[in-house]
Write a structure and sequence with these properties.
CATH topology of the largest domain: Arc Repressor Mutant, subunit A
Number of domains: 2
Strand content: 5-15%
Shape: elongated
Radius of gyration: 20 Å
Helix content: 55-70%
Order of helices and strands: HHEHHEEHH
Number of helices: 6
CATH architecture of the largest domain: Orthogonal Bundle
Structural class: mainly alpha
Length: 131
């Protein structure tokens, strides 16, 4: 699973890749547009685009000599789900710790978990909503 997180989130670890994502948010773009905007060499762009496409966040299609790139909605949803899994795992660990700390009976623990979730939602701590 760690490899999966690394494959997807590596897309966000470089300023050029983040800039590519910003450009692609405006719609599908030709590699020539990305080259112009980023002022990097074609091999460097190719390297970044491979990482973005491998992550699933970007798709590509070839037309003649040029590649066209676009944001992949399913890949973004998948990345969002991975991030939610990290958040949910963290919340479960916190609730488990609370359970051990206070040694609540199961029914009381469930009410505590529901209150914690309600508090988190009311405080605007949910950054990405589950679908």
């Amino acid at each position: 699973m760690v490899q999966e997180y690394m494959r997807v989130f590596r897309a966000f670890t470089d300023k050029n890749r983040v800039r590519v994502l910003e450009i692609l948010c405006k719609g599908e773009q030709c590699a020539c547009v990305l080259l112009d905007d980023l002022q990097i060499s074609q091999p460097t762009l190719s390297h970044h685009m491979k990482i973005l496409c491998d992550s699933g966040i970007v798709t590509s299609r070839r037309v003649g000599h040029w590649n066209y790139y676009a944001i992949n909605a399913e890949g973004c949803t998948y990345a969002s789900n991975l991030l939610n899994a990290v958040k949910d795992h963290h919340m479960r660990k916190i609730l488990s710790f609370i359970h051990v700390l206070y040694r609540l009976r199961p029914a009381e623990f469930l009410k505590s978990a529901e209150r914690a979730e309600s508090f988190r939602k009311n405080q605007g701590l949910i950054l990405i909503r589950k679908e």
